[in-house]
Amino acid sequence: MSEPDCIKLLGEHRRRESFDVACHRFVDFLSHGTVLDDCTITIRGSSRGIVFHGATLRNCRIVAQRRFANFSWHDVILQNCGFEGVFVGCDFGPRPDAYPQPPYGELTACDFTQAQVHNSRLFRSDMTQQRLPPWPCFTVLEPERNAADWLSIPFPESFRIEQATIVEAVPEKYRVEGVVAVCEDAKEIAKKHKITLEEIKRCIEGRAYIVQGP
Fold first, then answer.
1. What is the pTM of this model?
2. Which are the contacts of 192, defined by CB distance < 8 A and separation ≥ 6?
C-alpha cells in the first residue's frame, strides 16, 4: 500500500490510534474540530508540515523526532498530554490578545518531563497542573512579576537582551500579554553565551519562581 500524500482529519473523533505527521508530500491536517483521545502523534518533520488548528488532544503522547521549532499551539486544546523530544520557540496556551477569534487553545495538566523545552512561553494556564521539563531545562514562573529579581541575575552580558525579553522588560509596544511561564534550556544558553551549566545553576538556585523540573 502506497504512502499517502498527506493526512487530513477535519472534524473527526479518533481514539487509541497512532499518527506520523510532518513527513508527507503535502501538509498534514489534524485540525478544525478534530478530537484525538489517547493517541500517539509522532512529528517527524518541521512545523511547516503540520496543522493542528482547532484540534482537541486529550491524553495524547506527542513525540518530536527532530527539533520542533517556532510553533504556536494557541488554538489547540491540550489536556493531559505528554511531550517528548526537543521543542524550541513554541507557545502553549490561549492568547486572545493576539488571536481574538476562536478557536481558543488550552493547556491543562500536561507533562513535559520527557522533553527539552527552550525559549518557549506558556500563556494563561494553571502552572500548578503542569509537569515541567527537568534540568538542564528550567522554568521562570510569573516572569513579569519577578522581573526585577530575574534581571538582577549576573548572566553574561551577551544574554542581557534575551534575559530582558523573557520577563517582557521591553518597550510597551513589544510587550506580550498573558505569559505565565517561560521555559529555557540551560544547555542552549551555556553553548551560546560561553557559560557553564554549573554557573547557570548557581545563578538561579534559591529563587522560588525558577523551577528546575521534577
1. 0.95
2. 158, 159
